[in-house]
Amino acid sequence: MKLLYSIHKYDVFMFTWLINTRIHSALTLTSRYLSKTGDGALYVLIAGALLLHEGIESPFLHVVLLAFLIERPIYFILKNGLKRNRPEAALQNFRSIIKPSDKFSFPSGHTSAAFMMATLLSHYFPTLIIPFYIWATLVGCSRIVLGVHFPTDTLVGSILGMSTAIFCLGYIGQI
After folding, report:
1. Which are the catalytic amino acids?
2. CA distances from 165 to 22, 96, 117, 135, 157 (A)
3. Taking the domain 2-172, which CATH number applies?
4. Which residues are registered as beta bridge partners of 104?
5. In the chain, what are the domain boundaries?
6. How far is CA 142 from the centre of its chain?
7. How many Cβ atoms are within 10 Å of 63's Cβ, its own excluded?
8. Over the Cα atoms of the chain, what is R_g?
9. Phi-psi sector, 141: left (phi>0), alpha (psi -120 to 50), beta
10. pLDDT in tens, 19-62
């Protein structure tokens, strides 16, 4: 219990520091757009493009679908099982920039999906690994800037996403 309390204290400190920096308001508009890239439409577009370009037998399409079939239930179970309040509910006198789609914050689903896709895309397009992971990192950071996640929510989300992608690539036989 003491460890969890220490982690939460650190999380609140880092979150509060970021929210109170001068650059925070300048990051807000950009963060709204970055966050929207992790809403899910991009992933459907990628799957659709794979289906059109490579057909139903595409190993890349199979690994993307398997990854989402595994990651989304794990994310849902963790989020609704652990029930960690979002910053707005956990911190007195704080209001998030956007209204989140659900009640709990741990782990960040946007971050998890973004890192999962960055890992999968990097496997198939290794020359673009840096831009893919920069994008995924910015999606995670945008969720903190918008006030809907603590830093550890996005950290665990990134681990969940990358782990799921690596597992699925191994299972499909791509690594």
Report:
1. 110, 149
2. 36, 30, 8, 16, 12
3. 1.20.144.10
4. 85
5. 2-172
6. 10
7. 23
8. 17
9. alpha
10. 777 777 778 888 989 999 999 899 999 888 888 888 888 889 99
